[in-house]
Prior knowledge:
- The chain has helices spanning 22-29, 61-66, 92-95, 114-119, 126-130, 207-215, 230-233, 255-260, 285-292, and strands spanning 2-7, 41-45, 52-55, 82-86, 108-112, 136-140, 147-148, 156-162, 183-189, 195-199, 218-222, 267-271, 295-297, 303-305.
- By secondary structure, the chain is α/β, with parallel strands linked by helices.
- It has one domain (2-305): Ribonuclease Z/Hydroxyacylglutathione hydrolase-like (Metallo-beta-lactamase, Chain A, 4-Layer Sandwich).
- The strands form 2 sheets. It has a 7-stranded mixed sheet.
- Helix 3 (92-95) links the parallel strand 4 (82-86) and strand 5 (108-112).
- Zinc ion binds next to helix 1.
Amino acid sequence: MRITVLGSAAGGGFPQWNCNCRNCAGLRAGTLKAKARTQSSIFVQPDDGDDGVLFNASPDILEQIRSKPALQPARTLRDTAIAGVVLMDGQIDHATGLFMLRERTSPLPLWCTDPVEEDLRSGNPVLAVLGHYCGVDRHRIALDGTSFSVPGIADLSFRALPLSSKAAPYSPHRDNPVEGDNIGMLISDGHSGKSVFYAPGLGQITPAVFDAMSSADAVMVDGTFWTDDEMPRMGLSTKTARDIGHLPQSGPGGMLEWLAKLPAATQRMLIHINNTNPILDEDSEERATLARADVEVCEDNMLIRV
Ligand code: MLT
Ligand code: MN
Ligand code: ZN
C-alpha cells in the first residue's frame, strides 16, 4: 500500500497561529531547522489504482488536496480520489475538514464509531449540517475486531481497536470515556500481505494495542508530546500529555520504551506532532535520540510504501 502523510502535526499545526514557543518562533524566524506541518491526516491507497481512503478530515484539507495532485485525478468534471473518509475520533483537528467536502455531488461515504457519530451530530454537528449539502453515507465502525473495506478500494481492509485517549473537549464523554471515542486502525493489504497500525491519538498501550503494533510491518503512532509535562512546563496549559490522552515519548512507560520492544524489522514512525515538541527541531538532542532508536518523524507529503 501507499500512505501519503497529508498532515503530520497535532491540533493547531506547526507553527500554530498564536504561538511563540521556541519551535513556532524559530520556524517563523528561519532560525530553527524544522518543517512546517499541517494538521493530522493520512491518505492510504492500494499499490494499484488512483483512489484511496482519507483518514481524518483536517481543517487544512483544502490546502492538503491542492498540494497533492494525486488527490485530484481529474477524470470527470467533478472528481476526487477520496473514495471514503475514516475518522479516528471526533476531535476538531480530525473532523472539521468534513465541512470542506460539502460540494460533493453524492453523499460522503464516512466510517466512524457510534460515539464519534453521536458527537458529530450533537456537540459539533457537522454531520447534521452536511445533511443540507451533499449528505453523509455513514457506516458504523465495529469495535469487536470485525474488519471492513471501502467500496472501490480493492485489497485494503481495516480493523479498528478501541484506544484509551480522549474525546474532544466539546464531547459529553470528555471526562467519562466511552469505548470508541478514539480508535487505532490496523490497515492490511490483502495483496502484499503487509499491514500498518495507525493511531495518531494514543494514551495507553494495552496488551491488545501492543499485539496490533507487534503484528504490523509499520506503526504510525502518537507523536504529540516528548514529555508528559511539556505544556505545563512551558506555561501553556495546566494539563499533562497523559491528561489529554497522549502518551509522551520519553520517560518511564513512554512511547519510546514500547517502540523498542517491537520486532526489529518494524518501521516505526511518529505522527500528530504538537508544535511544542522538541523533535520538530531537526538539530535537537531529542531528534538524535529518535534516530538512534530508528524512529522516524513524519512530515507532510511523505510517501510511505509498505
Ligand atoms: C488532541 O489531539 O488532543 C486534540 O486534537 C487537541 C485539539 O483539539 O487541538
Ligand atoms: Mn488531535
Ligand atoms: Zn508553538
